[in-house]
Amino acid sequence: MSSIPVSGSGAAAKQPVGPTRTAAFEKRLASRYRAERNFKLVGLGAVIFSVAVLVFLLGNMAVNGVAGFQRAELAVTIDFPASGITGDATSLTAPSAGQTLEMQGLPDVVTLSAEQQLGKDAAAQLSPAAWRDVAAALAEDPGLVDRTATLHLPVNSALAAGLEGEGSAETQALAKKLAAQGKLARNWDWGFLARSDATAPQSVGIWGALKGSMLTMLVTLVLAFPIGVLSALYLEEYAPRNRWTDIIEVSISNLAAVPSIIFGLLGLAVFLALFPNLRSAPLIGGMTLALMTMPVIVISGRNAIKAVPPSIRDGALAIGASPVQVVFHHVLPLALPGMLTGTIIGMARALGETAPLLLIGMRIFVATPPEGFASPATVLPMQIFLWSDEIDRGFVERTSAAIIVLLVFLLAMNGLAIYLRNKFEKRW
Amino acid sequence: MTVIHPNMADEGAKIHARDVCVFYGDKKAIDNVSLDISPDYVTAFIGPSGCGKSTFLRCFNRMNDTIGAAKVTGLIELDGEDIHGPNMDVVQLRARVGMVFQKPNPFPKSIYENIAYGPKIHGLAEKKADLDVIVERSLTRAGLWDEVKDRLDDSGTALSGGQQQRLCIARAIAVDPEVILMDEPASALDPIATAKIEELIDDLSGRYAIVIVTHSMQQAARVSQRTAFFHLGKMVEYGPTSEIFTNPIEERTKDYITGRYG
Q1: Distance CA B167, CA B152 (A)
Q2: Does A329 touch chain B (CB under 8 A)?
Q3: What domains are there in chain B, each with its CATH number?
Q4: What is the pLDDT of residues A72-124, one digit of tens each?
Q5: CA distance B111 to chain A (A)
Q6: Domain A207-424 has CATH 3.30.420.10
Q7: How many angstroms separate the CA atoms of A257 and A272, rounded?
Q8: Which chain A residues have a beta carbon less than 8 Å from that of B105?
Q9: pTM for the full model?
Q10: Cβ neighbours of residue A140 under 8 Å, at least 6 residues apart?
């Protein structure tokens, strides 16, 4: 019989003090709690720091980028019937309309109208490509050619800077005067999303690079996802365990860690040697990026397959499913969410990649959006790189705007993948 | 030494096993076991943990094939046909010899899909209506129909443990097997669910040859008519359940039955 210890003066004196009731133990206990508190504080600090950095980055981008979606424009009224510009719905919307209008003297008409209304100084500050905006307006609404219309046309960098209170005193004064007249203003420039690269920051657009990125990503996904998933399935479900599969496994892990520019060299040496006509094409870019993305999908795919409980496999086998039925009816559906996570990571990396694409010639000036997988193109990060290299001050804001477009594209792509993952996700 | 009670050799046996050995690498997990499984009775394998009874059970539908290191020797015949022979396809064998596992393992699909999966892959139903009939019949036989008939589209994993195990039994009988192997089917269940499973085994016996592995001697005594006692990879004694439990011949069987070890 063991007696229950009774607390009290007499009983306590007889009781030996347990090792967990000494002062030293209580001191250790206090220090354990202190360590936990400190750890929590450090972790919280780390999270706050990362959130702060992210907020600063996004805030900075947003503030600069908003200006990138705007441009300084002069209001110019053009009397088309008096100008001698002619055309009908067919000729004004034809692909060659720009050339036709240039031969009819549209650039001079624009300059003359501006000189008459705003003075010679102001007209000289009009962007040299301003007449192209007039041509675009005519293509959009051919009826304009019979009317007098007021159009908002881009100015050059100097006057745009003047409007911001920068540059020479002369242009600042001119900008102030025109702004006071209501002729010069910063307007939303939605054409930024529809145009392609140009030499003047007022005329550039992101659509060419965005379409290039979309085409390249599509090629990457179509190649890397099925090949990656099938490799993972084969290695995990069918391949025998021996020295060869060990070598393959190590090679795949190493491939995932190879610097991306090396893949560019590979693309240059292999793909461009095979298809020399496809220099700068999204097809070659996508193939190169697929090489880079595939190992990531294979590794995450194998982990996802390993995580499928063996009892599900046993259950399916015991009912008479063949190995391939077990894989496609049970293992793959359960592993797909994990595979999609790997695909998100791989594709996000591929979308932001510049280095390998430099080597296969996607660092080019693309004034018209790529027509297909085989036409020359550039991609969003490359466009950002090219614009950040420009001297003209107007490109700074355009670069920020391009970064916003890249981030939005990234979020949209990941959002779609996460939606699909949650749709397929099942509990067991 | 194996003691086999008189009249246990059965010419009409569903399964003949002769000199079966199973190796895991170098380790011999099953040592020269020979026995006949009658189609008319429930046969129970009992014995202490690690004695090889589950390993032996998994020989009958060749589930040991999925373990790379496992190697099975000896002869196992299903209706006189060698299950390792060239004319025997493993997919067909597993359709004829169904299995229920220790832990309920329903597929993470709907209750209906769980049952319909086997008939679908084996092409047993041509129309949706036929499939509906199979699903209802299997669930009814497994005693689950009344509980789930209004929620066939719910996930099979949302059922309780006992219901999941009966779902797995229904899944096994949906392909109309000849033999059902049960590997400790009630060990993860509470007593009420266990009682239901045992009742179900009773109902199913006669229609299917049933082999059950159990570590509960009471369960073996309640549900089986034939019992084999395994110890350290050998079959020690095989006979009618009543004889094994009341009048064992081998000393080791007696010790195990009386709870001397286990």
Answers
A1: 11
A2: yes
A3: 3-257 (3.40.50.300)
A4: 888 888 888 888 788 887 888 888 888 888 888 888 888 888 888 888 888 88
A5: 13
A6: no
A7: 23
A8: 309, 311-312, 314-315
A9: 0.80
A10: none
